[in-house]
Design goal:
The chain is mainly α and 128 residues long. 52% of the residues lie in helices and 5% in strands. It has a two-stranded antiparallel sheet.
Length: 128
C-alpha cells in the first residue's frame, strides 16, 4: 500500500521461477513472517508458496474481532435501523393527512414524443 500498483516494491522477499529445475522458489521466510505479522495479506498464489515453505497460514488469516468490538458493531447497526424505522413512521402520518384532505395529487401525463405530437396535430387539423 505504500507504492503505486505497478511501482517499485517496498521490499523484495524472494523469487519464483517455475521453469527453473534447480531452485524454482527462494523466499526470505523470516522477512515474510515479519510482513505478515504487521498486517500484509498475501495473494492466493503467494499463500500457496508460503505454505510450501512452511509458513503457517494463521499469520495471514483474518483474526476474529474481540468481544467488545463485536458488541459495539452490533449496537451501531441496531441504532441505524432504529433511525430508519423512525423516519418511516414520521413519513406515514404526513401521507395519511394528505389523503384525508381529499387533495389527491394530479396524475402525471407521459411526455409526448415528436411523432406523437405530429399525429395529434394532424388529427386536430382533420377534425377542424
Amino acid at each position: 500500500s505504500r507504492t503505486r500498483r505497478d511501482g517499485r516494491p517496498v521490499e523484495d522477499l524472494g523469487f519464483y521461477d517455475p521453469e527453473s529445475t534447480k531452485e524454482p522458489v527462494r523466499i526470505d521466510v523470516e522477512r515474510a513472517k515479519y510482513w505478515l505479522s504487521v498486517g500484509a495479506r498475501p495473494s492466493a498464489t503467494v499463500a500457496k508458496i508460503l505454505k510450501g515453505q512452511g509458513v503457517s497460514s494463521s499469520l495471514w488469516l483474518k483474526k476474529p474481532l474481540p468481544a467488545a468490538a463485536k458488541e459495539k458493531k452490533a449496537s451501531a447497526k441496531k441504532e441505524a435501523s432504529k433511525k430508519v424505522a423512525e423516519k418511516k413512521k414520521a413519513a406515514k402520518p404526513a401521507a395519511k393527512a394528505k389523503a384525508a384532505d381529499g387533495a389527491a395529487a394530479p396524475k402525471k401525463r407521459k411526455a409526448r414524443t415528436a411523432t406523437s405530437k405530429a399525429r395529434g396535430e394532424k388529427k386536430a387539423k382533420a377534425g377542424a
